[in-house]
Structures are given as C-alpha cells and as structure tokens.
Amino acid sequence: MSNPLTWWNGLGRPLARLPRWAAAGLIALLVASVVWSSFAVAPVEQAEVTRAEASESEGDRALYQRISERVAAGESYYEAAVDEQRTRNYPTRPFVTVRLPTLAWLHSVIGASGVRIVSMLLLLACLWGLHQRLEGRSDPLERTAAVVMLALGGAAVAGSQSGYVHEVLAGMLLTLAFVLYTPQRWWPSLLAAALALAVRELAAPFVLLWLAFAMLERRWREVAALTVLLLAFAVGMYLHYLGVEAYRQAGDAPSQGWDGMLGPALPLMAMSRLTALLVLPVTLAAPFALLPLVGWLGLGGRLGLFATLWFFGMFFALALFARPENFYWAQLVLPAYFAGLALAPRALADLASAIRRRERQS
Hints:
By secondary structure, this protein is mainly alpha-helical. It is 70% helix and 0% strand. It has one domain (4-361). The model has no long low-confidence stretch (mean pLDDT 91).
C-alpha cells in the first residue's frame, strides 16, 4: 500500500491538478488574504517599533553581547547569563528564557564577527544547495530567480550585529539541512540540523517534521538517526535546565508567557522586517510576504510539501504564541522561505490553468 507521500509525489505540480472550484476558491482566498494583510500588519509593526524605542539601549542583542563578553573574559556561561538577565529584569524562568550557551561559547573562540562570517559562508552553501536541489524541477530562469530570492531572504547576515542573533545562525543551518537533503545522502542534513538544535531549541520542529517524513517513507536508518539526535537534544536541554537552576534565585522575574495570539499578521510582519522586503512600505511588503508560501506549495513533490508544512507550522506557532517583540523567531525559516517568491508566478499560473482546463472540458 502506497503512503501519502507517494500519492503526493505522483501529483507533480499539485495546483495544476486541482478541480476548478478548488482552484477558484484558493485564488479568492489568496486575494482576500493579500487585501487583509495590507491593513492588518501595520498595527503589529507599530507595537513592536514602540516597544523597541522604549528599550533601545537594553535590547536582546545588547544582552547577548554582554553575556558573550563576560564568557570570553573567563566567566561561567550560566553565571554570566543568569546574572545579566536578572540585572536587566529579563526573566530567568522557565529555564528556556535563558538561551543555550553554544553561541556565547562560539563567540569566545571566533568572536561575533567570526560568527557573522560563518553565517555568510553558510548562505553561500545554501545558494549552491538550492540550485542543485531545484535542478530538474524548474527551468533555468526560475532556478536562478530562486537563488537570488534566497540571497535576499538572508539579508539579515549583512547586519553588523547579526553575529549575536541566535536565530540567524540557526536559520542558516536549517536552510542548509533543507536544501542539502537527498534520500541517498542525508547525513550532511542531519549534521546541519544537529548544529541548529545546539544553537536554538526552536529548531526542534524541523527535526520532528523530518522524522515524520522518514517514518512515512519507511526510511528506518534515518528514523534511527533522527531519534538518537532528539534523545541527545533532550539530554542537552536537561543539562541546560540544571545550569540555569544552579544560578537562579527565588526572586527572579518569570516570563510574561507565550500567549500573544496576534494571528497571522505577526509572521507577515516578521517577513516584512527580516528580508529584503524591508525596503518597501509594510502595506506593500506584507502581501509579497504571503506569496512564497504559495510558491512552495505549488512546487509539489517532497521538497515542496516539506517546505510548506515547515513554514506553515512555524507561522501558525508565531500567530498563536509570539508577542510582537518575538517576531525574530521567524528568522528560523529564513532564508529558505523567501526563495518561494520566485516559485510563486508558476504556482499562480497553475491555478489559472486548472480553472481554464475545467472550463474547456465543461
């Protein structure tokens, strides 16, 4: 009996196979979403801008920079991190409010500028990997455009402080894992995903989705390797918990919680702020931020389905749990997500083709 992935792969370009009513409904939904996004994202962006202005000198990057400086000077990571967060009235409980120590330890070896250079090199590797992955699935022009969009989606690495942002490095590693994967050679993707987990625990959904795909495809060696990785990650998180608890005090501030419930306007705002769309007014950037999801869905195959589920799942989580100041979590799907913008024109053409075909048949 074939699994759902075999059926999906057999569809080829799935949007072109839709019945007329479904294609028309999807176009109507997309048009409505584009119009809605033009108005809905601006208030969320303004809330984040207002918050950032109120705490400009005490932002997250300043916190992580100071922690890294103390670690480089020889202090224990957990002593420095918990003390800095307490001093700046940042929460220290639950323990996940304190970042994993990997990036600070890396800073002590190569510095923040070194991490930024590593991120740039990873971006170059992602560009090559995407070009190879799309070969045979798109024409040369579309493939070249996707590589350009991927580069623009990685615009955050150009920031002078990007070496202090955990999500930038973790997002590059996840994109690399995504574009390098092949059924015949999956261990480089496993290594990249493991490194992403070591930098930011929010990379775990990517690995869990990969595990689900491997189980559906009955790729048991991958299942075993991914299971071992997740078990190692769980052990690492327990050790992280112990490290935080060793220095936490009873009066430390708790987290505000993760119940922002801001809806899809937040991930769209994030894409507008974290990619090359930053040069556009938010009322124009937000509609463009929707289109990559359509592009990846329209690509079809395992590649397109994995991308669509990964991006949609991340955006759904942002919509439910993130507060305006957490918008940078979306960096975990960049630069991969933005490459879908180059795939969107053919996806829209497939929808139009599905409608026209049904009209000719009726």
